[in-house]
Amino acid sequence: MGELSGPLAAISLGAVYMGALIYIGNAPNFMVAAIANERGIRMPGFFGYFLWAAARCCFCSPTAHHFASGTYSQRALIFSVCPNPAIASSSPRGESFPMLSAKSEVQVDTPEVRVTEWRLAAGSATGHHIHEMDYVIVPVTSGEMTIVVSGGERSKAQLAVGKSYFRKAGVEHDVLNETTTDIVFLEIELK
């Protein structure tokens, strides 16, 4: 062994360990590709992803929004790389794309009241639902929600910290976060 054997061993070990870490880091990518392939969704290979990443700014700009009218797998891929859910979640033809599920956590559940914290990450939705009880919404963060009623009509609702509102039972809608920031609010249902 010569005088450079120490640095050579360090470089060799570093290369082996970094290679292993990169491989482990790619495991979620392999899993997503396997799930997509299993469900019949065509996914691009390495160079396809490379080209999509290079064109990311193009696909996520409002002027290139017409690209979102492609096949389901193209739309799913655009949604996965586009940081702007408002652009990625719908097309000019009015189609809607899959959104992430909002997260909810029941904090209090008594015979009189149920308090649920809702967290809508960018690009997520609560899913279509009917409120079976009167309820109060208490915004924890400010933001803009998109409300979609059963007929498909869309409207915007502004949330402001400290500005609660009340609704009667029977409201039927889906609540979407088509912004780039998370929305958090408490839903207090009156039993």
Structural class: alpha+beta
Summarize the main sheet: 5 strands, antiparallel
Distance linking N and C termini = 79 Å
- Secondary-structure element sequence? HHHHHHEEEEEEEEEEE
**How many DSSP-defined strands?**
11
- Helical residue percent? 25-40%
State the CATH superfamily name of the largest domain: Jelly Rolls
**Annotated CATH architecture of the largest domain:** Sandwich
CATH class bucket of the largest domain = Mainly Beta
Quote the beta fraction: 25-35%
> What is the oligomeric state here?
single chain
Give a brief rundown of this model.
With 191 residues, the protein is α+β, with helices and mostly antiparallel strands. It has six helices and eleven strands. The strands form three sheets. The chain has a five-stranded antiparallel sheet with strand order 2-3-11-6-9, with no helix packed on it. Strands 5-10-7-8 form a four-stranded antiparallel sheet, with no helix packed on it.
Structural summary, described in words:
The chain starts with a helix and ends with a strand. The protein is elongated. It has helices at 5-25, 27-38, 46-54, 56-60, 72-81, 85-88; strands at 100-101, 103-109, 113-120, 124-125, 129-130, 134-139, 143-149, 154-159, 165-167, 172-176, 183-190. The chain has 6 helices and 11 strands. The strands form 3 sheets. A 5-stranded antiparallel sheet has the order 2-3-11-6-9, with no helix packed on it. Strands 5-10-7-8 form a 4-stranded antiparallel sheet, with no helix packed on it.
